[in-house]
Amino acid sequence: MTNSPNRLSNRTMAFVLAGGRGSRLKELTDVRAKPAVYFGGKTRIIDFALSNALNSGIRKMAIATQYKAHSLIRHCQRGWSFFRAERNEYLDILPASQRVAENKWYLGTADAVTQNIDIVDSYDVDYVLILAGDHIYKMDYELMIRQHVETDADVTVGCLTVPRKEASAFGVMDIDDKDIITSFLEKPADPPGTPEDPDKTLASMGIYVFKWSFLRMLLLQDADNKDSTHDFGGDLIPEIVKNGKAVAHRFDSSCVKHATDAPSYWRDVGTVDAFWKANIDLTDFSPDLDLWDRNWPIWTYSESVPPAKFIHNEDARRGTAISSLVAGGCIISGTEVSNSLLHTGVHTNSYAQLDHAVLLPNVTVERSARLKKVVIDRGVVIPQGLVVGEDPDEDAKWFRVSEGGVTLITQPMLDKRAESIA
Q1: CB under 8 A, 24+ apart: contacts of 292-296
Q2: Ligand-binding site membership of 171 (annotated)
Q3: Of 47, 73, 75, 57, nearest to 13 (Cα)?
Q4: Which tens digits make up the pLDDT trace of 191-243?
Q5: Is 334 assigned a ligand-binding role in the annotation?
Q6: Is 187 annotated as a binding residue?
Q7: pLDDT, tens digit, for every residue of 4-25?
Q8: Average pLDDT, the chain
Q9: In the chain, where are the structural domains located?
Q10: Which CATH code is given to the segment(s) 309-421?
């Protein structure tokens, strides 16, 4: 986390795209954008991109918001307000605000930057790092920026190495032996292999590095193109691949790991199943994502709450948590908790059981409820005796059951159920 004058990150701003709903998370994004969804007990999804930037030495950031942005904006104001303008540090929140025309929202990822060109100009930076605000990973962006400068690229694209048979869900890169991108293919039926391994493919992470003067020119040209969708992946990157120099940066070379033999960790938690699994994976004995690493911390808004509390010690009424993460402010009163993740302020009551459950902040679980393989939205009150995760057909009558068998429960679902059985 050093910030020496020689670091390229000192001359870079991070522009975080955080305006999307994330509709595949279903009701979890009814009241908040995907980057604002809670993750890991204390953090929000956007904290990972912002923490990576901060830990990489970047002290100038902007966050473009659009869909139901209040929760995200409030979180950033509370948790990321420590930047000091007198030290040439900035974090700007840029809602779609009719800055260009009264009826013009952000039309695409590139247009979100185009509409704020004057603000980026004011940062007086040489490079711009474009980030998606909705993925879980640790990455040292300084290494990617350095590669961009050393290769004299027009754009450097962050890429994951994925099995070729799984790459059809991504935008993928065909590269030569010097990692120069020769074609960019959006969700191809037959993805190309890499020069060193025909069974692997490079998939775009939605992370791009540009020299600002070049990107500025490109954005203005794109804004005048009536046939463009004004999107980085759909328009700008393919144009550079065709007519300029686009270079792939492999995530494996800049992923921050807690051990040299640890796998490179990156997750798109954009579905209910993926969200549940990524949270539950944190309860493993040695999880691939290390939230305890003080050398690369994940910064967030930390509420002032008391420690977690476990009470009652009787047969069938014992407050316990095994292979679980329990955040501050939780009261586990006579409840058996196993392989579960409880966010801040969860209260559970006697004789309840939680198994492979993800509970977002301030959930209350009343007596004798049994919850298995569930995601419970913020502030939900689980009624006494409710059983979920044992009868999929019954669960599906009232709640959303995913393809992977995870049950998502929100308060409106419970209210509708209560009205029906009253």
Answers
A1: 292/258, 293/138, 293/256, 293/258, 295/1, 296/51, 296/55, 296/138, 296/256
A2: yes
A3: 57
A4: 999 999 999 999 999 999 999 999 999 999 999 999 999 999 999 999 999 99
A5: no
A6: yes
A7: 557 899 999 999 999 888 899 9
A8: 94
A9: 8-283, 309-421
A10: 2.160.10.10
